[in-house]
Each structure stands twice: as structure tokens, then as C-alpha cells.
Design a protein that fits this description.
The chain is an alpha+beta fold and 434 residues long. The protein is 44% helix and 12% strand.
Length: 434
Amino acid sequence: MFNLNYRDYPKIEKMHQEWCKKNSPLPEPNPDAQNEFFNWLYSVKDGLYTCSPEQMLDSLTSLIQLFNQSVMSNQELFHTLFDYRFLFWERYKNKNTNILFCVFEWPQTPEFSRIRALCRGRTNAANNANLENSLRELNILEQVSDAVEDGPGRLLISKFKKYFQPDSLIKLPLRKFVDNDDFDVFEAFCSNNFDYKKFSRQRGDWGPYPLIELLENTVCPYCNRSYTHSVFEGDVYGGRPELDHFLSKSAFPFFALSIYNLIPVCHSCNHAKLDKHVVKVLDNTAVYTHLHPNILTDNVLDIKLFTTEHEGDLLSFLVNNDFSLNGKIQITEDCRARTKIMNSMEIYNLAFDNSERKLVGYYRDHYKDIERTLNLVKRYPISAINSIANLLKEDEKSLRRVFVENLISESPGDEPLGKLKNDLLSSIISNLDT
């Protein structure tokens, strides 16, 4: 929701790049110059450690172009899915398996909607025949059959569901599209060489503690609810917020040590997000789908996010002792209209609508905090306000407006629930002005 603000960007970048080049260097020379993905990596090289979020997208876009050129098998299937929404790569590991998958969202087309509905139905001969007919109409039946083939004697729909998950994502093995091991080797190399664990355990001149100390922010930029400052003095390290990889290190290991990809956040947000996808490919270009704390234009400071169910609810609470704001807080229409904001609200379980347009998420129960804040105004009895108003030769409404204005934070991103409180307090002032 809010931008991160570092006190000294040049110092942060210099210290971080020096540490990375010393402690997690890429081997020299390029160990696999015949692999175009290694050449991409070595063309970016040390710039990965301090690249901006926008530069990360540029680098990803060029990598995607290389990846597209490497797709030689089942091309029509790949591009049918890729052209809708490609969500990059995901490695699955267990004792017997180490497979890299390509991840896609389901295309939102009538044809794929019918296919998805079939997958939610029974695995029987009738649905299998319908699935084959639908895939045949899209001219991808043979390619799908090859992509999901994992043994004879089973209906296609049974194998199809394993990879085309109707209530989740489409995940197909990379080897079904790429004939050589170049990308697989490249991805494994990046996972082994960009050693975030080594950085996370670092103490002393550089590491998570001094990085977080150089931030002016002390509240989680994702949720604006929890404090995120470190506790340490000298050689005693008492605790720190978690560092979230905005672009997950599982999908993008080459960004595992990128300084502006490390976001100090609270435990709740970090574990709500985990490895969820926050970037997509649109027109062959990588774009963020969620608010990024290190992109200035993603700051929500000047966007009103919260309101109440009815315009006068806040004033009713101030006037009536038996009036509660429980269930009255809503998200604004302006907020609902902004996809990146709503995506971010949902991924961190903050505030979104259910089927009945009722507020769902952590912010649903923060009406109590608003009530406590407004009680600071209610403590002034009407008689006292009138007396002060007469003394200052002001009307009662103007004086109450001053009381409310004094509760508005100048830096809502640095105070827990600062944005929620400011939005609703501003609504009171607007109503008092009418």
C-alpha cells in the first residue's frame, strides 16, 4: 500500500553490491557460454543486485523473449496459453522428482470455460469425449495429449486434470515445450549461486539488520497494520521483520539478492503471499499485477480506500452512544476500480468483497480501532464544546472539525492503520463542511 523510503539510497546500493560481489559472486568466466540463458545472466550480472523494480521487468521481458525462442515442441499449445497469461516457472521437488513446470492462468474464453467446467465434472467416457471434441476445435488435441501423457491405458480427461487444474492453475512440464536442458540448467544454476540464506544469516556491517535500519518506514508497507522495525544494539540482535521477496526466489532465483526485491514486512503478509504470482506477461512484456513498495506511482497515499456503508455513519457514532461501526466499513468504488490495489488487498487478506459485497479480511474488524479514535472526540461533551466555541467565537461544528483534524496523521504509512483512520476521519470533516 505504501512506498518504502530509504534514508540513503547510494549507501544501501554500494554496501549491498559490495557484499554480494564478495559473498555470492558469479563464477568467472561464464561456465556455459553455449547456453543463451547464461549469456543473458552474464549480460546483466552485478546489475541484478541493485536493479530497480522497473529494471527487473525489463530484464524479465528480455528473458521471456529468449525463452519463447527456445520453445520447439507443442508450440501451438504453448502460445495459446502464453498469449493469455504466462505466470513463469515453478520447480517441484521431492525424493524422486525434480521437475520444472511452466505455469499459466486459465484463458478466459468461452472455449476454455467449457473445458474447465468439464474438468470439474466426473471422469467418465462421456466427459472425455466432450473434452477431446473441445480440444480438437481449438486444434490442440494432439499437443495436449502429448503434454499430459504419463502412461497408457487412462482416459485423456484423467491425465488432463492432473496438469490443467480446474480450480487453480495450468502447470505443464517444461520438457514438453523445450527439447534441450538449457533453461533447466540455467534455473538450477541461479538457485545455487544467488544465496539468500547466506545473506539472511549475516550479522555485522551488512545484512538484514542494517538494511532495515536504513529505512524510515516502521510499519508493514503491505498491510499498514503491524510494526516492522528491528530490535538490536551493538552485537545483540533481538529480532527483525521478515524480508519478503516481492518476486519469489523460487520462480526468479536470479532476483533472490536484488536489494529492491527484499521488502521488510510483517509475518502475516509474508505468509499470506508466499510464492503467489505478482507479475504476468502481457503482450510479450512483463508487468506487475500488484502494488510494489519500491515503485513511487504505486503509493496509495492520495487514493481514498475506505468509507462507510452510509454517508452519515461516522457522525451517527459521534452523536449516538448506542451506534456501532461494526459492519459499516467498506472499500470505496475508486478502490474497487483499481485492479492492482484490489489484487494487493486480496493477496494479503486485507479487505475485499464476498458475494454479498460485505467486507472480508483483516480490516473487517478494525472498526473497533476507529471507534477508539473517535471516542477521543466524543470525550468532549457538547456543553464543553459549546462553551469553548463561544469563548473562541467559533460555531460548534467548526470546533468539532478542528478536533477531528488534529487526529489526522501526516504520515499514515508510518502509523498502524493510519490510512484507514485518515480516510474515515476525512469523511467526517467533509460531512461537517456541508
